[in-house]
Hints:
Elements: H1 18-26, E1 30-36, H2 41-56, E2 64-68, H3 78-81, E3 88-93, E4 98-103, H4 110-121
Parallel strand pairs: 1-2
Antiparallel strand pairs: 1-3, 3-4
Amino acid sequence: MSLETMQPxxxxxxxxxxxxxxxxxxxxxxxxxxxxxxxxxxxxxxLPDFGAALDAADVPEDRIDEIAVDEDKQGxxxxxxxxxFIPTIVVETEDGDEVTRFVEEEDVPPAIWLAERxxxxx
Length: 122
């Protein structure tokens, strides 16, 4: 893993987020690409729990791509994916079709937000 902030939060309680964990684990054809920075306060706040959710859902590491960006938010794939804010998490099929994306901050944590949209789309 290239982002320390994606290290799973050991205090995160998977049982409290069972629906999100089940959804993330049920779709073995999805790839999660995470743009973030260990220097970013939003990333430090949101990504450890997302990392824990992916871990609890047994999402294999080869389906998680972590991309560190610099403080100017520059890095691999930034232009191609139109990344302006971090963290950004793009969920795609194996064929590269975007299913959904989480951008910086929503009203619920990334795992829940993405799981709800994955359920809606699939």
